[in-house]
Design goal:
This protein is mostly helical. The protein contains 5 helices and no strands.
């Protein structure tokens, strides 16, 4: 029955990723993948917030389901490769360094915020 929590979270996370990606990217006239960057950082923050949650069902629903479907390592990898192959090597490097730095920072901030709650 635990799989149902994952499915429900993913049913919200996947469309949320798509809609957020499209909305953010539409506001930027750049080859940089701001939409993917945004969902990955936001998902890292939310996952950090969940560190204080002890309910296994909440972890499955929000951590595995929602954050798992919201964030995307495969799209990040693909977009970075396409930037590199398209000659935007600086943007590709910025995407890797920025995503890693912002993602780690966001998960840290999330854990700190969870500690305050």
């Amino acid at each position: 029955m635990n799989w149902l929590f994952v499915v429900l979270g993913a049913a919200v996370g996947a469309p949320l990723r798509y809609l957020t990606d499209r909305a953010v990217q539409a506001r930027h006239d750049s080859v940089f993948p701001w939409g993917t960057f945004t969902v990955n950082v936001a998902g890292s923050f939310v996952l950090g917030l969940l560190t204080g949650v002890t309910s296994a069902q909440a972890q499955l629903l929000l951590g595995t389901g929602l954050c798992g479907a919201l964030t995307t390592y495969s799209t990040f990898s693909y977009e970075t490769l396409k930037l590199y192959e398209g000659g935007a090597k600086g943007y590709a490097a910025l995407n890797v360094a920025g995503s890693l730095t912002a993602g780690l920072g966001a998960v840290w901030l999330g854990t700190e915020a969870a500690g305050l709650l």
